[in-house]
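Design review, sub-item: ligand-bound model
Attendees: FS, YL, KQ
YL presented the inputs for the coenzyme A complex:
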Amino acid sequence: MTGRAASVRPPDPPRRGVRIAGTGMLLPEDRITNADLEKLMETTDEWILQRTGIRERRRVNPAKGESCWTISAQALRGALADAKMDAADLDLVIVATVSTEQACPSTACRVAGEIGAGAAGAVDMNAACCGFVYATNVAHDLIRAGSYRNIGVVGCDTLSEVMDYSTEGRGTAILFGDAAGAAVLRATDDPSRGIIAQAMHSDGTSWRHLYIPRRARDFPAGAEGKKLGVMYMNGREVFKFAVTKFCDLIAQTLDRAGLTPDDVDHYVCHQSNARILESARERFGLPQEKLYVNIDRVGNTSSGSVPVCLHELRSAGRIREGQLVMLVAFGGGLTWASGLWRM
Ligand code: COA
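KQ shared the predicted structure:
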């Protein structure tokens, strides 16, 4: 026989799927009701409820030893228990947060150490209120590509620590509360499971509409008299951004997946303001049961928002295997992101 043997290309490894094997959450016990805020600033329960839909929020209590990393660790422990896994099974821990206590180490390292995740990788991601959606998109693709099998993702913020609870800060402080939510992502042999369309966006030119200054040089022009370590938000600008981007993002994600709004079983959305959620529900003609709302009980919990909603829906048995679930968020940066999951 002459000639070269036909080159034989090894078969592609089977495409992996990714599933959400477990979820968990931790809401601190201490509450801040609208009545509490009435005592701290010039505001009313009626004003807050009508503009935001919020009745109360939770708040970490440092006197009880609570902080971003302690509640993150508790949420991830819950997600591992739900997945019937040990911390030592994790290959990587990602914590999405803007509330990390120290610049070094990361919150993720504290969490991995606390829960006993051995030598698992640990890293924080900061995409403000979009953090959990960014982090699950990245974790999903790391598993899909075959590099990792089990990744713990936490979304946690403790923004009560950077609120100005005086009348000066009332436009922002009424919105935010503290929470941690977590999910364990696992490789599965079923390639149909996992993210079927995702998007991650930012507009860094609009950063000044929502920021937390640490040093004098962090202030934008015209911010004289403002304090360090306090969150500042231009509510009207963020509202305009959110209403437009939220709806455009849902439309873009559906378009990428070749689906219509009715095809999706649940929209798990960042709880920024009840009016913003309602505008998306109306635009896409969604029934109330498809767009979960818990903002009345917890406020806007930034990175904690989407994973807490996800956990509440899963633990109520409302999210089932095979369903289509879209995670959607937007926030400081400015950032906006989505992930459409086949559960
Ligand atoms: N109680 C009473 N009055 C308040 C108040 C409060 N807590 N906060 C602001 N006001 C006053 C303002 O001082 C202003 O008074 P003036 O007209 O005499 O100047 C008036 O109410 C209107 O203020 P404005 O900031 O325009 O209110 P708004 O209708 O835009 O509502 C938000 C404020 C924050 C509720 C709204 O802008 C919002 O939800 N924005 C989006 C925020 C968001 O989603 N952020 C998170 C992104 S992740």
